[in-house]
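Database export, one record per block. Field names are fixed; values are copied verbatim from the stored entry.
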Amino acid sequence: MEVGSHAFSSLHMLRSLILNNNPLVLIHPEAFSVPGSPLQELSLRSSLYNYTSLTDLITALRWGELTNLLRLDLSDNRLVFLPPGMFSPLPNLQNLHLNNNSLVAVYNGTFSGIEQLLELDLSRNAFRTISDEGLHELERLGRVRLMLGQNPYVCTCEVQEFANWLNGSKVRVGDADRLYCEYPAALREASLRVLTAQALGCYGKPHEDITDLSLHTSYVFLGLVLGFVGMVFLFVVYLNRKGIKKWITDIHEACQNVLEGYHYRYEIDSDPRLGHVPNIRQGQPRMDPHLGHIPSDSRITQIPSDVAL
């Protein structure tokens, strides 16, 4: 149930360590630390008691300096999630067995740091499909031999990219001919490699179809709203047509009065006879000895033509 610190440090020629079927509750961070790092195979099949044991294992792989490890077996451990970079302390790892777990997805960085990997077993997990992110991560492994069989694949439009990847990837899927649909019932036991868009009832990429439908719906809704606003505006204009007509007439008359005033002032200012009248100055009132003070706002309406200037 427990692997203590430096439990195998005295075994300087240790090459293979098999701890299968042990319910390990606690794994010390330096449990697999051996001077010279001779360990080449580590098998923990059906050995991790719970998720806490996985956390301990990740720390032990990082602290153990297992740079010469070639084979790691973590099958039958009910693993659901693999943290990104979990295997990066194992740069020479060639065989990784993760079969018969409960993995549901592959994420970016899940298998980072193991560029020498030759075999990866992901069979008998809980994959319903492999997402674009997971396909990119698997494609990065290059020459690996991949096992993906006996997963409950759901053959809907979302699996189309995965099916296309199986036929065109440089990654060698060892059991590609044995990948079958689990759901729906109409496609059960159908091979993923022969699935087409017509067989799945999909035309084009599903995400693009959804996006186009959303945009189309948005434009229709916007058109309806604008049409309703236009109808309300026309209805308001119709109800107030008399008031609007009076308002336009008033504005026209006001503008006409202003223009007539400017025209009258222009005629007065342009009269050459006003320039010789001595008592008229701009901004000063005109005085008459008989009438007294004339207000400043009085105006000359007509100058007799027989006045001697």
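Remark 1: Residues 280-284, 288-294 have pLDDT under 50 and may be disordered.
Remark 2: The first strand starts at residue 2 and ends at 3.
End of record.
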